[in-house]
Amino acid sequence: IGVNFSDKWGKKVDVQGSYFFNNSSTKNEQIVRSTRPEKGKERHTDETSLSEATNYNHRFNMRFEYRIDSSNSLIINPSLNFQRNESDLASTSQIYYAENDSISRSNSLNNTKRDGYNLRNNILYRHSFAKRGRTLSLNFNTTFNKNDGDSYNDSRFRFYDSGIITDSTQNQFRDNPTSGYTLSGNISYTEPIGKKGQLQFSYAPSYSKNKANQQTFNYDTLAGKYSDFSQSLSNRFDNITTTQNAGVSYRLGASRDNQFSIGVNFQNSRLESDRIFPSPTQVDQSFNNILPNLQWSKRISPKSSFRIFYRASTNFPSVTQLQDVVDPSNPLSVTMGNPNLKQSYTHFVSGRYTFTNTQKGQSFFANIFLQTAEDYITNAVFTPSSDSTIEHNVVVSNGAQLSKPVNLNGYKSLRTFFTYSMPVSLIKSTINLNAGLSYSKLPGQLNQEITETDNFVYNGGVVIASNVSEYVDFNLSYNIASNNTKSSGKFQSSNNYVNQAIGGQINLLSKSGWFLQNDLNYQLNSGLAVGADPDFLLWNAGIGKKFLKNKAGELKLSVFDLLKQNQSFTRTVGSNNEITDVQNTVLQRYFLLTFTYSLKNFGTARSSGGFQRRPGGPGGMNF
């Protein structure tokens, strides 16, 4: 449910507001298959889960704009968000090297409840001096957040080690509230230099404090309640981040046809981590960084232009990544934080070239994105060959794994995309050709060994879009993506898989107002895990009639997934060459009867009449 509000208070104040409420209940059955190289073998994890979740969300937004006079303005933009979530999860998992070489099995029941709010406010004051190009702006931001939550976990485990079977249980209650606030500001002053230049000075301080508290209790069978406090799985942690950022930049260009800017910022950051319980420990780190930036956009001709952008930035670890407490919710996959994490330093470059010939209906677009990072935050994974005791006297069982965030160098990411469009008069259509290349290098650490995972994705496609007449139009498409993954280091492996999508759509409209719609999409996947090559045909159709004056009314009967084959499937490649395939429950065939009445006629343009797909992975055709 949503409500929007807009008003004008006097001649100088504009007010806008909105309220949104959402209540959703979701049931989902999920199958997860993951694999990675380990100890000269392939380690497989198969997990099946059934979950039910209920979510409540309230969101308020306001915007006040006060035009004090022709030279001064004030904008205040507060927002408030409340959220409540409760979920139940039942899962089973198996970890193994081969069918007859099991590592462990588990059955788990989890219940989680969380309540929280997020309060934000932004205040912006702007002043324009009498001299053109001389301006002053003051910006102040506040953010307050709090999240209270608890969870129950009841699990049964079986471990296999050289023919010896060991069973264990876990029944725990965990209370883990978090809270924090951020105060930040920005002062910016611009001064004209010559007729086309402008110099800008800026200063942006920021102060952020976050708290995380985890208390874990084991179930006491004699007392019949969760009263056995686990000190090794409990923690109280505070984190403070202070940043001072000052910069100067120069912009040249009087029009949008040719603009160039270059600048540099100096940033001093302080990262303070304070473990209060179980044993007080403090980590205090300071960083000094030079952060350059550059941007150039130019119109080469009336038909073509380009844009180049570069920026350096830093990224701080979150309080959960810093908190050195074990998350006991899954003893087969134990996680904990690292208070010695550093900030990561990132370089980002992008380029774009466009060519458009409206007379001939031709266009060409080329995009490239490049990113590298130093001290990239990733996970170090440890898989003990026997039961091992780690920090805070926590035992990681043989067959389980421990994940801990660390800083590693070597992260790289490259993405390119090209598209060309031209008309084909013979079939009264437009043909669109596209191609692209994506590459990523993910550093990781597995059992103290540094790993690198290279992932290449080659994709291409063609779309033929036709508008034969006022009563007939169709679309044909084909896309292919080839994924190649290879890891280097002591634990080497490779994997290749291909995804193809063939689509077709036709819309027919009669002079009397009757219309027919058909939309087919065939997904083909190869090279995936055994039992996870979901090829399927998705067929959506609709029939209806437009009537009333100016065809303002429309009655339509739609059927989604006529063949009941729809699936949701995604694959991700992580560090240490861990490949994960995920299949989720999706809504299959259903019918929908809709009536639409157009209150206003804004023109003669008609809708494509097609079905709208939500973005997602291959096969994720959700509506």
Secondary-structure blueprint:
Layout: E1 2-9, E2 13-38, E3 41-69, E4 72-98, E5 101-128, E6 135-161, E7 164-175, E8 178-193, E9 197-220, E10 225-252, E11 258-277, E12 281-301, E13 304-315, H1 319-322, E14 326-327, E15 333-336, E16 344-357, E17 362-374, E18 376-382, E19 388-389, E20 395-396, E21 401-408, E22 411-424, E23 429-446, E24 449-466, E25 472-488, E26 493-509, E27 514-526, E28 536-547, E29 553-560, E30 568-573, E31 579-584, E32 590-597
Parallel strand pairs: 15-21, 18-23
Antiparallel strand pairs: 1-2, 2-3, 2-31, 3-4, 4-5, 5-6, 6-7, 6-8, 7-9, 8-9, 9-10, 10-11, 11-12, 12-13, 13-16, 14-15, 16-17, 17-22, 18-21, 19-20, 22-23, 23-24, 24-25, 25-26, 26-27, 27-28, 28-29, 29-32, 30-31
Mean pLDDT: 90
Shape: globular
- Could you list the spans in which at least 5 consecutive residues all have pLDDT below 50? 601-623
Per DSSP, what share of the residues sits in E-state strands of 2 or more residues? Answer: over 45%
Number of helices: 1
N-C termini distance: 19 Å
Query: If classified by CATH, what would the architecture be?
Result: Beta Barrel
What's the number of domains?
A: 1
CATH level 1 class label: Mainly Beta
Rg calculated over all Cα atoms? 29 Å
CATH topology: Maltoporin, Chain A
| Biggest sheet overview | 30 strands, mixed
Salient structural properties:
mainly beta, 623 residues, single chain, 30-stranded mixed sheet
Characterization of the model:
By secondary structure, this protein is mainly beta. It has a single domain, classed as Maltoporin, Chain A, CATH 2.40.170. Helices cover 1% and strands 75% of the residues. It contains one helix and 32 strands. It has one helix at 319-322, and strands spanning 2-9, 13-38, 41-69, 72-98, 101-128, 135-161, 164-175, 178-193, 197-220, 225-252, 258-277, 281-301, 304-315, 326-327, 333-336, 344-357, 362-374, 376-382, 388-389, 395-396, 401-408, 411-424, 429-446, 449-466, 472-488, 493-509, 514-526, 536-547, 553-560, 568-573, 579-584, 590-597. The strands form two sheets. It has a 30-stranded mixed beta sheet that branches. A two-stranded antiparallel sheet has the order 19-20. Strand 25 and strand 26 (493-509) form a beta hairpin. The longest helix has 4 residues, at 319-322. The chain is globular, with a radius of gyration of 29 Å. It starts with a strand and ends in a 26-residue tail after the last strand. Mean pLDDT is 90; it is low at 601-623.
